[in-house]
Each structure stands twice: as C-alpha cells, then as structure tokens.
Design goal:
There is one protein chain. With 287 residues, the chain is of the alpha/beta class. The protein has 2 domains: 5-194, Spore Coat Polysaccharide Biosynthesis Protein SpsA, Chain A (Alpha-Beta Complex); 204-274. It is 40% helix and 17% strand. Strands 1, 2, 3, 4, 5, 6, 7, 8 and 9 form a 9-stranded mixed sheet that branches. α6 packs antiparallel against α7, α6 (205-228) packs parallel to α8 (257-274) and α7 (230-253) runs antiparallel to α8. The radius of gyration is 20 Å and the shape is globular.
Length: 287
C-alpha cells in the first residue's frame, strides 16, 4: 500500500503543552504538513507555532474538547490519505517515518500502523507470536499517543468516539476496526520516545491527576457498556466505587485534601457514567 511524504499529515492535539511540543515538532520531517489542534483560544500560541514552523497549521478549538474530539478536528482538516496521530510529548527517532513507509509499502493492507515505544516491553496483544525478524506484527489495539490511520478505511464520522474525553478512545477505535475485520500493525523498526504524562505543563499536575481519576473510571464504564453491555460495565466498576467512597471518608478524616479529591472523583466518575451523564468533568488549568 503506497504511502509517502506526499500523502501523509501529522496531527498533534495540545493543551498547555508549550514545554514539550517544540521537541515533538522538531523531531518530525520538515516536509510533512503538521496540524496542531490547540484546545483553547490561545492565539499567541497559534501565532508562535505558525511563525516558527512553515509546515505547520494551528487550529484553536476554543475550549478543551478532549483528545478524541481534538484528533477528529485535525484528521478532518488534513488533505492527505494518511494521518499520523501524535501526542505532544512524543519524540520521533530519525528513521521513524521512513520505517513506517517501508512497512506500509510491504503490507498488502492495513487500517492502523503504530511505531514501537522504545521503553515498552508489551504493546497490544500480538496475534503473530514469532517476530524474530523485526517484521510488522498484528495486534488488536495500540496506544493513542502514536498511531497512523489509513483514512480510506474510515467513514468521515467514524474516527474517534467523542463521548470519550480522556482515556480508552484509542482502544474503542481499535476495537471497532478489529471487529470490522481491519488490520492493526506494530512496526518494530519504527521507534519513538513517549515521555508519558508530560503533555500538559507539570505545574498543573494535581489538577490533571484529579481529571485522570475521574475520566479513567468514567471511560472504563462507558467502554465496557458500549462493547460488552451494562452488566459487564457495572460489575467491573462497582467494587472500585465502594472502595473509593471508603477511601474518600478515610482521607477526609485525615484532612488529606488531595487524596480525598482523588477518591471522590473516582466515585463520581463511576456514578455519572452509571446514570448516563456525559464525561463533563474538566480540570482547572487557569494560570
């Protein structure tokens, strides 16, 4: 399947990512079009990026819509057949893109390709066990911080499910691809370095931790209900729900405000998912 610099774009979703996104952009081939979707109305950030990088276009989403919705904006804005989704805290190696091209052109068909994170030992569940020759191998899912999409395999509104604000939107996308008979490959010769949890400025780390705990529980329930039904979703979360309530009371007694809020958010995420509310929680990232 022919893929080259002429039919590939890169999409990066950012939010308070000034500390890491430049290293990400600089690691990308300068002849590839880059679309940055900034989840705010930060026009100075947009102007800075577009003046510094001639191959880059920055779109302001005006508000924090979540990773899935942000990626969808970038994918739909792209004019190429293939799109490489990257988190802003991902750094490519010199041959990352070239190795994706090599693999894609050898494969007869694919829906998603992903490079290998250099620090990961396990990445998805391998369908092909023997990989002694470093050949691309099939998996049933990949992490969302680096994934190349073959747009021809998707309907226009069939990319990321925007009901997910944070977590499991990539698992959901991959599961839908897998269920429809699509193919997902890891390319072990194509490597990246993912800094992990560095996409948002570290001064907001506590607020991000609150958000992670709320949305992980909410997204887990929604994912399980969507793909496996109510009972699976309920049983997979109810024990954690009651445990979180007990820990919330315990840390309230100790007056540990951070831990108290974390466990309150875990319980709240499950309860809101259970009663059918959307993933409404947003971290406070005001300077």
């Amino acid at each position: 399947m022919s893929i080259s610099r002429q039919n590939l774009s890169v999409v990066i979703v950012t939010l308070k990512s000034e500390n890491v996104v430049h290293d990400c952009i600089k690691s990308i081939n300068q002849d590839l079009p880059i679309i940055v979707v900034e989840q705010s109305n930060n026009n100075s950030f947009k102007e800075e990026l577009e003046s510094k990088y001639k191959n880059l276009k920055c779109i302001l989403s005006k508000s924090n819509l979540g990773m899935g919705a942000g990626n969808n904006i970038g994918i739909k804005e792209s004019k190429t057949e293939y799109v490489l989704i990257l988190n802003p805290d991902v750094i490519l190696e010199k041959n990352t893109i070239e190795e994706l091209f090599v693999a894609a052109n050898k494969l007869s068909d694919f829906t998603i390709l992903a490079p290998l994170e250099i620090n990961y030992k396990n990445y998805g569940r391998a369908v092909q066990k023997d990989n002694s020759n470093n050949l691309p191998f099939k998996v049933d899912f990949v992490d969302g911080f680096a994934m190349l999409l073959n747009k021809k395999k998707f309907k226009e509104n069939d990319y990321f499910d925007e009901n997910f604000f944070m977590y499991l939107e990539n698992n959901d996308l991959c599961k839908r691809v897998f269920n429809k008979g699509g193919s997902i490959f890891i390319v072990p010769n194509s490597k990246i370095n993912h800094l992990a949890a560095k996409a948002v400025n570290e001064k907001f780390s506590v607020e991000i931790e609150y958000s992670r705990n709320w949305h992980w529980i909410w997204s887990k329930y929604y994912f399980n209900k969507k793909h496996f039904g109510f009972l699976k979703a309920f049983l997979s979360g109810i024990k954690s729900y009651f445990s979180s309530i007990l820990k919330f009371l315990f840390y309230s007694f100790l007056n540990n405000k951070v831990k108290r809020k974390i466990y309150f958010n875990r319980a709240s995420g499950f309860f809101n998912a259970l009663i059918g509310k959307s993933s409404w929680y947003r971290p406070n990232l005001n300077d």
